[in-house]
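Quick one: co-fold with 4'-deoxy-4'-aminopyridoxal-5'-phosphate.
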Amino acid sequence: MALDRPAAPNDLNAFWMPFTANRQFKKAPRMIVAAEGMHYTTSDGRQILDGTAGLWCCNAGHKRPRIVEAIQTQAAELDYAPAFQMGHPRAFELANRLVDLAPDTMAHAFFVNSGSEAVETALKIAIAYHRARGDGARTRLIGRERGYHGVNFGGISVGGIVNNRKMFGTLLAGVDHLPHTHIPENRWTRGQPEHGAHLADELERIVALHGPETIAACIVEPLAGSTGVLIPPKGYLQRLREICTKHGILLIFDEVITGFGRLGSPFAAQHFDVTPDMITCAKGLTNGVIPMGAVLTSAAIHDAFMTGPEHLIELFHGYTYSANPIACATAIASLDTYREEGLFERCAELAPYWEEGLHSLRDCPHVIDIRNMGLIGAIELEPIPGEPTKRAFAAFLEAYDKGLLIRTTGDIIALSPPLIIEKAQIDELFGTLRGVLHAIA
Ligand code: PMP
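Sure, here it is.
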């Protein structure tokens, strides 16, 4: 495009949209122009109740004054500074805040720009950690079927989603996958399912196959969100922790969705009382407002790198925007908002009410399972034979028309509203959804 010829601002063609059926979308676009509190505003002036906190990230809702102000103030004061060989106060403040919020053994924060980058960073730290300790044969990684760990090469390699992997070649070598924990015995469970802790023992089989001395880390989402809300069976995460500890394997919790109050605790690690060696987080870290992620690590991991001469760089890794000042200020304002409004506690308090509302949809047409924890819910629909995803996508479109944003993955509807949701809005959400499920039947 010539510089003297202005682009047509309303042409939809140039933007290649992520994870979107582009050709279909551009025939009937859905355009969001504003957001506040629990609602989005569409280009045709309709209000849409945000049933998903954007993409599981706007935990305090939208356009929160404290966050807006923090961004403006920071941009006017220090807009950008490298984090390589220099620092700025907000980065250190945020690292301290995160370490305070996280389980006791988390002692350091490494800043990145997204959940995907947090995952790549954690996997690289895991391999480099073993090497730093003279255990360089530990390079294998273990993920899980139906795990979502972002879209970069490490993340899709340990991830277990066929569609996200199949176009992209050989991926990382030396990766195994645990079975997922979503088993039919657990249908209609409220909260943590009873069955399936034994599925963690599959880790022993993988360890026996390759030898523990070859395995660097095991990464799981404590509660898998993106593939349809798979809640860990009772005892499962404890068992994974035991096996990892026994064999010197680092356990990484990918808390990109579960971090920052979604289950009623700062992190799922605290909710389930299982402590990993590293936590990846993003999304709610900045209330979704500015891209940012972090890897939290134990002191033991960090300290393994701090042994060489002091003038040398310890870890050859980092991003231009690591600890970006505006992102740090946004994160601090988000954490302040969560704390001042008691949003994590609020989530825990609302969870039983949410659970009742969600499970009241059990009798709706084509519903074959419902599950929930904290302010997360999933409604699984019976797929139309030969046309997977079609039924749930029809629900998404119908809900959008009726003024409600839901998220679908396969034939599963996933719900994760901002933690500021009111009881009346929970009623509205499930009332609308009931209408949607009947309308598409
Ligand atoms: N890990 C998990 C568990 C996630 O849910 C996501 C995003 N849904 C990611 C990683 C990737 O995060 P991002 O899209 O910010 O790269």
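If it helps, Residues 114-116, 119, 148-150, 221, 225-226, 254, 256-257, 282 surround 4'-deoxy-4'-aminopyridoxal-5'-phosphate (CB under 6 Å).
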